[in-house]
Amino acid sequence: MIRSLIALIAVTALALAGTPTAGASPGPPACAYTLSPPQVVQLSGTNVVTATIAPAACDQSDAYLLVACVQLQGSDGPGQCAEAKGILPAQVYYQPYRPGATYISTGRGCSAKGNPPQPVCLSTGPFSAAL
Predict the structure, then answer these.
(1) Strand partners for 110
(2) For residue 36, how far is the Cα from the chain centroid?
(3) What spatial distance separates the first Cα and last Cα of the chain, rounded to whole Å?
(4) 3-state helix, strand, coil in the chain (%, to 5)
(5) How confident is the model over 15-61, as pLDDT tens digits?
(6) From CA 114, how far away is CA 123, in angstroms rounded?
(7) Distance separating alpha carbons of residues 83 and 98, to the nearest angstrom
(8) CA angle 77, 122, 33 (to 5 degrees)
C-alpha cells in the first residue's frame, strides 16, 4: 500500500515538473529589427521623407509583418505608414516635405515563435531628424 502511494506521488511530481506554469515570463523576443531615421529622398522628382524597417536577426522564428511610420513633429495626425508582409523591408514615403521641419520615424515588427507559433510584436524607435 505504501509503495503504491509513493509511486503515485512520484508519477504526479514528474508529470507536474514538465508542465509550464501560466505565470512564466516570456522568453527573449523572436526577432530584432532595424529602423532607419527619417531622411529626404527624391521620388519621381519630388522630395519626400522616408524611413525603412527590416528584420535584423531572427531566432527560430518567422517575421510576418513589418510597419514603418513617419510623422511630422507637432502634427495632429498619425503620420503615414507602410507595411510589408514576410521578411521584406517596409518603407514609408511621407509627403509633403517641409524643409527645416523635424520628422519622427517609428516601426513595429511581428514574428511567430514557439510551438504552436505565437505572435510576438516589438516596437522600435522613435528616431527624429530635422530635415
Answers:
(1) 65, 121
(2) 14
(3) 81
(4) 10, 55, 35
(5) 333 434 344 445 556 788 999 999 999 999 999 999 999 998 876 66
(6) 20
(7) 24
(8) 100
